[in-house]
Amino acid sequence: MGDWLLLVFAALGAGGLNAMAGGGSFLTFPALVFTGVPAIAANATSAVAVSPGYLGSALGFRRELGQLPRARLWQEGGVCALGGVLGALLLLVTPAKVFAAIVPWLLLFATVLFALGPALLGRLRDESVAPSTAWRLTGLMAVAVYGGYFNGGLGILLMALYAMTGERDIHTANALKNLNSLVLSVLSVVAFAWAGVVQWPQAVVMMMAATAGGFWGARLARRLSASTVRAIVIVTGVVMAGVFFVRG
Question: What is the structure's pLDDT at 117?
Answer without folding.
Answer: 65
